[in-house]
Design goal:
Elements (H helix, E strand, L loop, with lengths): L1 H26 L1 H14 L1 E4 L2 E6 L3 H8 L3 H36 L21 H25 L4 E9 L2 E8 L1 H6 L2 H32 L4 E2 L4 E6 L16 E5 L2 E2 L3 H13 L4 E5 H7 L26 E6 L8 E6 H5 L3 E2 L12 E6 L6 E7 L5 E5 L1 H5 L2 E4 L2 E2 L8 H23 L7 H14 L6 H32 L1
Antiparallel strand pairs: 1-2, 2-3, 3-4, 5-17, 6-7, 6-16, 7-8, 7-14, 9-12, 9-13, 10-11, 10-13, 14-15
Helix pairs in contact: 1-2, 3-5, 4-7, 4-14, 5-7, 5-12, 7-12, 7-13, 13-14
C-alpha cells in the first residue's frame, strides 16, 4: 500500500508541476509569446492531467495508403463492417450475461473486464510492455479510421497522441461535416475500421505467438536445458560465486532440467521429498570429518544437529550410519567434495565390492534442502535453504542463446508483448463496439440504425429515439461491468 501511495503522489506531483509550469509560461510577459508560438509550432498542449500532441504531417501518408489497391481496401473495410456489427452483438450479450451471472451468484468468478492498474495488479517489470501495447493498439486503431475516411472522401484534419494521467493513446480528427452527409454504409466502414484493426492485431499476435519459436531456431537452443535471464539482487543465489544471467542450467538437486516445466517439477519434488544423499566410503568420511561429535544420544535423535563450526562456509553437517553402528552418526564434511560423489536415496543405492560405503544425508531441518545446481561449465552451485527461495530468486527461459551477441531476453519479450497485444487489443474491441456514449459503438449503432431502419421507419425522430434508448442501455451496461470489475479488483 505504501508503494502504491508513493506512485500516486509522484504522478500527481508530475501533473501538477507540468500544469503550473504551463500556466506560468503562458502568463509571463517575457515568455508567453515565445512559449505559445512554440506550442503552435510543435502541436503540444497541456491541460489537467493530460498532455496532447497534434499534427498534420501524416495526412499525406493517409492519402497514399488509401489510394493503394482501392478495390481491396473497399472489401477490407466492408469486412470490418460485418465484424463490427457481429462484435457489437457478441459484446452486448457477453456483458449482459456477466452482469446477470454476478447478480445471481452474488460473486464474480470470471470477470470479462479486468482493469489493469500499475502497482495494483500490474508488475512493475511489465509496465513498459503495457504502455507500449496501449500506444501501438491506439495508433493502429486510429490509422484504420483515417485510411477508411480518406478512402470514403472524408477529409482528415490531423492526427495526434495523448497521455491522460498515465494512459497513452491516439486520436484522429475527421471532417464532421463531410462525415454526416455520406451514406450509412460508408459511415460504417469508417466507424468500424478501428475495432477491425484491433481484431487483426489480435490475429497477428496469436500467429506470432505460435510461430516465433520456429523463427528462433537458428539463434537459440531448446530442449537441452534452460537459461537464467534475471537474478534478484541480494538473493541467496546472487554474487560472484552464485548464478548469473546467461548461465545454462541442466540439473537441480540431481533432477535433470531440460525446460522450465522440468525446473518447476524438480522444485516441487525437492520440497515434497526428503533430501537426497551422496555415496561416500566410510574410510573417506572418517578422513574428511572435522567434527568433534560423531554420535548422538538416543533421546535426542529427532532433533536437528549441527556438528560443524557455525562460522564454517565450506563444510556442512551430514548424517549416516554403518553396519557396526545402525544409529545415526554425524560428520562435518566439505560440502562440495561430498556432493560431487554419486547421488543416493537409500543406503542400498551405495555398493562397491570389498568397500563399506554409506549414504550420507545433509543434517538439516524439514524445510531446508541442500540442492546442487549445475549451470554451464562453472562449478555447481550449492544452495542451502528452502527451494522456493531459489525458485523466486531467478527468472528463466527455455531458449539458450547460441552466441553471446544474441539477446537472452528476446524470446521472453516477444512472448510477453504478443500476450499483451492479444489481451489489450481484444479488450479494446469489446469496449469500443458497445453502443455507449463517446465510444465507436455509439456511431456504429447510429450508422446501423440508419442503414436498416431508414426505409421502414421514415420518421427520423423515431429512429433517433431508438438510437438513444440503445445507447443508454449500452452505457449503463458498460458502467455496471466496469463497476463490478473495479469492485473485484480492490475487494479481492
Amino acid at each position: 500500500m505504501m508503494v502504491q501511495t508513493t506512485w500516486v503522489a509522484l504522478i500527481l506531483g508530475f501533473w501538477s508541476s507540468l500544469y503550473l509550469l504551463d500556466a506560468f509560461l503562458k502568463t509571463q510577459t517575457l515568455s508567453a509569446r515565445k512559449y505559445k508560438a512554440w506550442l503552435d509550432r510543435t502541436g503540444f498542449s497541456v491541460s489537467v492531467c493530460q498532455l496532447r500532441w497534434y499534427s498534420t504531417w501524416m495526412n499525406r501518408t493517409f492519402v497514399r495508403l488509401a489510394q493503394w489497391r482501392p478495390q481491396f481496401l473497399r472489401t477490407w473495410f466492408t469486412c470490418g463492417v460485418f465484424f463490427g456489427l457481429v462484435a457489437m452483438l457478441v459484446s452486448v450479450l457477453l456483458l449482459t450475461l456477466m452482469v446477470f451471472n454476478t447478480l445471481i451468484r452474488s460473486t464474480v468468478e470470471n470477470q470479462v473486464l479486468t482493469p489493469i492498474m500499475p502497482g495494483v495488479n500490474l508488475p512493475t517489470s511489465q509496465i513498459s510492455y503495457y504502455f507500449l501495447t496501449l500506444l501501438v493498439c491506439g495508433i493502429l486503431h486510429e490509422i484504420g479510421h483515417a485510411i477508411a475516411a480518406v478512402r470514403e472522401q472524408v477529409h482528415v484534419n490531423g492526427f495526434g497522441l495523448f497521455l491522460m494521467f498515465i494512459y497513452p493513446g491516439a486520436y484522429v480528427d475527421l471532417s464532421s461535416e463531410r462525415l454526416q452527409i455520406i451514406s450509412p454504409m460508408r459511415q460504417l466502414r469508417i466507424y468500424c475500421a478501428g475495432v477491425w484493426h484491433n481484431f487483426i492485431i489480435v490475429l497477428v499476435a496469436i500467429a506470432v505467438l505460435f510461430l516465433y519459436p520456429w523463427f528462433l531456431v537458428p539463434f537459440y537452443t531448446t530442449g537441452h536445458g534452460i537459461v537464467i535471464t534475471h537474478v534478484t539482487e541480494n538473493s541467496a543465489v546472487s554474487g560472484p560465486r552464485g548464478l548469473t544471467v546467461r548461465d545454462p542450467v541442466t540439473s537441480l538437486g540431481g533432477c535433470p532440467v531440460t525446460s522450465i516445466k522440468d525446473w518447476n517439477t524438480c522444485i516441487a519434488a525437492s520440497i515434497r521429498e526428503p533430501s537426497l544423499g551422496n555415496c561416500l566410503p566410510v574410510s573417506m568420511i572418517t578422513e574428511l570429518d572435522t567434527s568433534s561429535k560423531k554420535k548422538i544420544d538416543k533421546d535426542t535423535k529427532s532433533l536437528y544437529i549441527d556438528c560443524c563450526n557455525e562460522t564454517s562456509s565450506t563444510h556442512l553437517c551430514f548424517m549416516y550410519h554403518t553396519k557396526k553402528n545402525p544409529d545415526n552418526v554425524y560428520a562435518c564434511l566439505p560440502a562440495r567434495a561430498t556432493t560431487d560423489r554419486p547421488i543416493c536415496k537409500f543406503q542400498s543405492d551405495c555398493y562397491a565390492p570389498n568397500v563399506e560405503i554409506s549414504c550420507v544425508y545433509p543434517s538439516v531441518d524439514n524445510q531446508t534442502k541442500l540442492l546442487r545446481v549445475v549451470h554451464g561449465h562453472k562449478p555447481p552451485l550449492l544452495f542451502l535453504g528452502h527451494p522456493l527461495d531459489l525458485h523466486y530468486s531467478v527468472i528463466l527461459s527455455n531458449y539458450i542463446p547460441n552466441s553471446a551477441l544474441i539477446p537472452v531476453n528476446l524470446p521472453y519479450a516477444i512472448d510477453t508483448f504478443c500476450k499483451y497485444l492479444i489481451s489489450l487489443s481484444g479488450a479494446l474491441v469489446i469496449l469500443n463496439v458497445v453502443p455507449c456514449y463517446a465510444l465507436d459503438g455509439q456511431f456504429i449503432c447510429q450508422g446501423f440504425i440508419e442503414l436498416t431502419l431508414r426505409s421502414t421507419i421514415p420518421d427520423k425522430e423515431v429512429r433517433d429515439a431508438i438510437f438513444s434508448l440503445v445507447v443508454l442501455f449500452g452505457t449503463v451496461l458498460l458502467a455496471l461491468n466496469v463497476t463490478l470489475a473495479m469492485w473485484v479488483l480492490f475487494e479481492g
